[in-house]
Amino acid sequence: MPMWLFVFLTAFKVTVFCKAEVCPCDTKELCQQISDEKDFEVLVFDVGQKAWKSYDWDKVTTVAAFGPYDSELMCHAHSKGARLVLKGDVSISEIVDPGNRTAWIADMVDLAKRQFMDGINLDIEQEVADSSQEYYALTALVRETTEAFHREIPGSQVSFDAAWSPGCIDGRCYDYVAIAESCDLLFVMSYDEQSQIWGDCVAMANAPFNQTLTAYDQYLAMKIDPKKLVMGVPWYGYDYPCLDFSQEGVCTLAKVPFRGAPCSDAAGRQIPYSVMMKQVNNSMSGRLWDKVQLAPYYNYKDQSGQVHQVRYDDPESISLKTVHVRDSGLRGTGIWNGNLLDYNDNPVAKQQTRDMWEALMGL
Ligand SMILES: *[C@@H]1O[C@H](CO)[C@@H](O)[C@H](O)[C@H]1NC(C)=O
Ligand SMILES: *[C@@H]1O[C@H](CO)[C@@H](O)[C@H](O)[C@H]1NC(C)=O
Ligand SMILES: *[C@@H]1O[C@H](CO)[C@@H](O)[C@H](O)[C@H]1NC(C)=O
């Protein structure tokens, strides 16, 4: 190799190396990974932009970065003793091959290190048949990811997003017992619980009280350590256009099938808590309370005159569930997602936002 090329390549390599390793925070200490455990986990998904500046950082313990990487968020989280973790999403068919799996994990570890991050949240929500190749590959992925992260980033956290119920919901037949043993925690997504409606095709709660808590009992009955379970709650609801709206207030849905079920919440549209709070007081019904599902809802008429029913969660319905986190000794709570509140400065929004954060504490 000519000397000039060698010098050029060496200089290039050094430049790239340094660039990747330079700590973007005010002080170098803020780039150090967080490794201590809090008694009560509050895991927040963040989908980008700057809403995180308004988060209640006395409560947050982990932020899963589902938006673009934001070094300012990393520095801030670390200054509050909170973790920032990567999003891990890969097609399972691509990691059945052990070599490909190892390569994917190495890429993730490398990315986390270069960005001074504290772990990874595995968000793999694909259909998997019981005891299939993919079933075993997924468990191996979780185990090997955890081993690699713990080895390369001591004290890092590897979490896995679990369906609201372990019972093959949405065709996700995963080996939850082995997966829970193989990672630090399961973030149980206690929402979208109407993704498969087998009975009457009508609007129902996103996260009904009894159904939600029964599913935790099922996870615990499988001998999964309660300290591995984080209860994920929704800061969004569903807006359902009603094909028929009965005198009793039952909203009949269009039949939109999902993974084998004839009817699903896909007949509705997900909307943020901030949007619903601007709508509810001026709606047809105002806030109503579903005494069976223990969750709020309201009805409104759109410009064409069609009735919609909006099913959601608020501090009252969330608190009813999160007290169970304390009672059952679970690891903590979490939200999909942190961006969905109204972080404006007016007193009503501020109070609503405070109440939503408070409801996560299960007190
Ligand atoms: C393994 O990875 C290679 C390179 O990314 C890809 O081309 C190949 O399809 C993968 N194999 C499987 C079985 O997915
Ligand atoms: C609670 O949910 C479980 C499982 O979905 C069901 O079997 C049970 O009847 C429900 N209990 C009440 C009081 O609704
Ligand atoms: C809606 O009504 C509730 C209950 O009366 C009140 O607490 C809340 O501040 C109102 N929301 C707005 C945006 O005015």
UniProtKB/TrEMBL annotation:
Q: Which domain of life is it from?
A: Eukaryota
From the Swiss-Prot or TrEMBL record, give the protein name. Uncharacterized protein
Q: Which organism is it from?
A: Dallia pectoralis
